[in-house]
Automatic annotation (TrEMBL):
Residue ranges of every copy of the FAD-binding PCMH-type domain listed in the record: 69-245
The entry's keywords: Cell wall, Disulfide bond, FAD, Flavoprotein, Glycoprotein, Nucleotide-binding, Oxidoreductase, Secreted, Signal
Record organism: Gossypium darwinii
Lineage: Eukaryota, Viridiplantae, Streptophyta, Embryophyta, Tracheophyta
Annotated localization: Secreted, Cell wall
Presence of keyword Signal: yes
Protein name: FAD-binding PCMH-type domain-containing protein
Family the UniProt entry places it in: Belongs to the oxygen-dependent FAD-linked oxidoreductase family.
Length: 548
């Protein structure tokens, strides 16, 4: 069987590279362990396959990490069954290959499909594992990790206008990566994070076992709900608790320029947004625009909200809590909850709900060259700081830059920061996302854009969280530190530099879980949680997580 498979998989003429031997050995192993070997040629893509490039790029969302110089995998596996993943894990271990797992490809640093290490690696792309099963009567859903958030929302909306799930607004984002990092969206002030509403999971560990919540134990179940993807194993599917929403929600976007008092409104928003009722999600998008009056550059702040209720309920609330914004009925639109997610990513009102199913449509932070960073704010930022900020947006490299403030409070203040690995709970007024993007022809000068966002981030140091300066793991940022590939002795101390920024004190518990479930550190990448060697020397039992 093996010679035939090699002919099929390497059928196209291609320059033979140094990677051919490990690729051949790996493929031979797969041919012996795939339960249905006849399907291997349809599920496995080598660098010699004519479809390899299109499959690799299909969900590579950050084009900065999809250039001719970007390291690429020896092989891409697109499994149809859990057994295909088990076989891939087995063969990667046997032949010393690193493994990356991709659901939607939205890792901001591309760690689900590339590497900064000079090592051969394999990608498992979960695009074929994307089923969504909704149980309206029980208010639950089982969703496979390869499904997108949009596919989940669409299936919920088809069956009920009064059920929802509190995940993010990016409809092309993969469920697997999103839930692995926490996942916040329009409903998080009402119901918490996506990960807070996961009630079971199916998981493949380093020993190729398929585990559920009961068999994996509460410590591992805790770790996979916010501890970041790629550290512990492969989550096949998630059981979700759906939440109640009204059939009608109200949205608005009101934009103000500097000439329209934007600075004072942004400053005032800091004191109000996190105290609003849980039913309202508020954010501000800040970017530079041309003034309508004289085409002069100015700064625009777009105040956006999604409210779980009608226009008639929202207007008196805004008049009472934030009269300075001057919201009137004409600013507001009513729609269903699923449609509000499309509205929040700037799709026109009235686009068909099926838009949620389009994996390839360009949207916010997908199919772009970009760099992003994040922060958390615990005290209102002075008005003078914003005034010092605005000139930085007039730089040439900031022409497509945006900052987004998202109000916290509500349910997030009620959940302990140890409830899941995601620790950014009570005490945060809002989060900040910084994004700068550029065109393909500008990528040769990408460093000037990267330098701009780093300067902005540095400027904000005195005004954001400290000790640690907190970062959201789903806004991955390699600037804050990375693991050395083979430095086992110092891996924990190196990882702690970035780990406490993502997870605060939860990082230590994540390390304990990792040590128990994957002591040899098979599942690893530049910012994966490392095991702690000293625990193993004391006789830690990797067969049982126990009580950590």
């Amino acid at each position: 069987m093996f010679p035939v498979l090699i002919v099929v998989l390497f059928s196209l003429s291609w320059k033979i590279s140094d990677s051919t031997q490990p690729a051949e050995e790996f493929l031979h192993c797969l041919s012996l362990h795939f339960h249905n070997s006849s399907s291997i040629s349809e599920l496995v893509y080598t660098q010699h396959n004519s479809s390899y490039s299109s499959v690799l790029k299909s969900s590579a969302q950050n084009f900065r990490l999809s250039t001719p110089s970007t390291p690429t995998p020896l092989v891409i596996i697109t499994p149809l069954h859990a057994s295909h993943i088990q076989a891939t894990v087995h063969c990667c271990k046997k032949h010393g290959l690193q493994l990356r797992i991709r659901s939607g490809g939205h890792d901001f640093e591309g760690l689900s499909y590339t590497t900064t290490y000079e090592v051969p690696f394999v990608v498992i792309d979960l695009l074929n594992l994307r089923s969504v099963r909704i149980n309206v009567e029980k208010g639950t859903a089982w969703v496979e990790s390869g499904a997108t958030v949009g596919e989940l929302y669409y299936e919920i909306a088809k069956r009920s206008r009064t059920l929802a799930f509190p995940a993010g607004i990016g409809h092309t984002v993969g469920v697997g990566g999103h839930l692995s990092g926490g996942g916040f969206g329009l409903l998080f002030r009402k119901y918490g994070l996506a990960a807070d509403n996961v009630i079971d999971a199916r998981f493949i560990d380093v020993k190729e076992r398929i585990l559920d919540r009961k068999s994996m134990g509460e410590d591992l179940f805790w770790a996979i709900r916010g501890g970041g993807g790629g550290s512990f194993g492969v989550v096949l599917a998630w059981k979700l608790k759906l939440v109640a929403v009204p059939a009608i929600v109200t949205v608005f976007t009101v934009s103000k320029t500097l000439e329209q008092n934007a600075t004072k409104l942004v400053h005032r928003w800091q004191y109000i947004a996190h105290k609003l009722p849980k039913e309202i999600h508020m954010s501000i998008g800040i970017s530079r625009v041309k003034s309508n009056e004289n085409e002069k550059m100015t700064i625009q702040a777009s105040f956006r909200a999604v409210f779980l209720g009608s226009i008639d309920e929202l207007l008196p609330l805004m008049e009472e809590k934030f009269p300075q914004l001057g919201i009137v009925k004409e600013d507001c639109f009513e729609m269903g909850w699923a449609e509000s997610n499309l509205y929040s990513t700037q799709f026109p009102i009235g686009v068909p709900l099926e838009t949620l199913l389009n994996r390839n449509r360009k949207s916010i932070l997908s199919k772009l060259f970009f760099k992003a960073k994040s922060d958390y704010v615990k005290q209102p930022i002075p008005e003078t700081t914003f005034e010092g900020w605005w000139p930085k947006f007039y730089k040439e490299e900031a022409k497509s830059a945006i900052m987004v403030f998202v109000a916290y409070g509500g349910k997030m203040d009620e959940i302990l920061e140890t409830e899941t690995p995601f620790p950014h709970r009570a005490g945060n007024l809002y989060s900040i996302s910084y994004v700068v993007d550029w065109e393909e022809e500008e990528n040769k000068n990408s460093e000037k854009f990267m330098s701009w966002i780093r300067r902005i981030h540095n400027y904000m140091t005195p005004y954001v969280s400290k000790s640690p300066r907190e970062v959201y793991v789903n806004f991955r940022d390699l600037d804050i530190g990375t693991n050395e590939i083979n430095d086992k002795e110092n891996s924990h101390e190196q990882a702690k530099i970035w780990g406490i920024k993502y997870f605060k004190n939860n990082f230590d518990r994540l390390v304990h879980v990792k040590t128990m479930i994957d002591p040899e550190n098979f599942f690893r990448h530049e910012q994966s949680v490392p095991p702690l060697p000293c625990l193993l020397k004391k006789g830690a039992n990797s067969n049982s997580l126990g009580s950590l």
